[in-house]
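Bit of a strange request maybe. I'm writing a small parser for structure token strings and I need a real example to test against, not something I typed by hand. Could someone generate the tokens for this chain?
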Amino acid sequence: MNLCKRACLYSIRKKGKTLTLLAFLLVMATLMLTCLSIQSATETANANIKKALLGYFTINAKTLENGIPEDTVSQILDVDGLSGRYTLRSYTYATYFDADGNLLEINTEGAAQVPEGYENAGRVVANSNSQEDSYFTDGGFEMVEGNPITTETGSQVLIHEKFAQRNGLSVGDTMLLGNVEDKDKTIPVTVAGIFTNTEEQDSIGMAPSYDLYDNIVFTDLSTASFLLYGTEGTTNVQYGDFYVNDPDELERIMTDVQELEGVDWESCTLTRYDNDYQNAKESLEGLQNIVFIAIAVVSVICFLVLALFLTLRLRGRIHETGVYLAMGISKGSVLLQYLLEVILVAAIALVISFGTSTAISHQIGSSLLSQVTSETYETVDLTGESDTAEEEPTEDLGLAEIEVAVSAEDYALVWAFGMVLCVASTALAAYPIMKMKPKSILSQMS
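Reply from user aminoacidic:
Good idea to test on real output. This should exercise your parser:
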């Protein structure tokens, strides 16, 4: 009788022991698959958060005489790890003239003061995309007419609708921006759009005239560069926001940037912005650590319990082992039979575990991930409008699409782990018997 047939017959004959082993291996496989599924889900969540909460750093070169040169910006964008997304900004003041050089009227009502030399001047904001400026994203500004200003446009401005009405300007008209300190230094610009503010200015009565919403003008970076640095044909900026692919590499990227030549980095201020990501990452890492510990504990317990179970089982089979040896069957063949008995049961348990772990991991994993997601939104404010995590849109962080499910990779890993566990436990349990000489085994039988 070959060892496969002997293994099958023994498993059928000893139904109680076989079912006990099956139940244990099923629980083991289910626990392992559940833990691995949750771990995979948290890794997916972490990857989604990296995409949603892109870390970035800001370069403040306001104190530099010539700001950040255009070629330096190109060098920065070539640094490994940057996503290619960036925002360039500059801020200055300008005196407003019409196309004929006549001074335009600004709003002074509600101003704390009208500084000397700024009677017809206002703040000039330049952004690589005016729609991404904080005045539009957070300050309640919105376009009424025309188009926003981007890096593709040049010598254009956006003006407030009240400023336009006060001075009879409309989209397509030309006006002049002049350097406040040198009014002969002017640049013609075209009105590309008109905006308004949907929220009242908080600093009414405290802000100087040039900072009133009505008097703010948005322009392109090249125009601001001319007003600030007198450049023509090139664009220098005061500030740059550069986004990275992986927030974990932010420190390294900032170091690489500061090694670039051509800029007095000691006079610049580099500030990192990744608090939201770090807070969200901390919540997910807590769950990942728990799952990792659970996997380690389950693995050790399963090995020890299975080894103990098989040891007790094989001790009761010394007589059977002696009979096999007396029949001329080698120790190796006997050991393979014992191993095959365990593997057959393990294979059945692993097949069943796919269904049980799918149901359990979905329930337990979703509950744990939901709790972590709630904690994540308590530390991350995506909209600035909600005080509670429940009101935050989960899709903003890409967590709503995460499903805790058994993947093919995890299932294959548990199969491999299960087989290794069975081989190691059987070998450990059978070792005391296998090292005995046939004569010793037969003497114990008598």
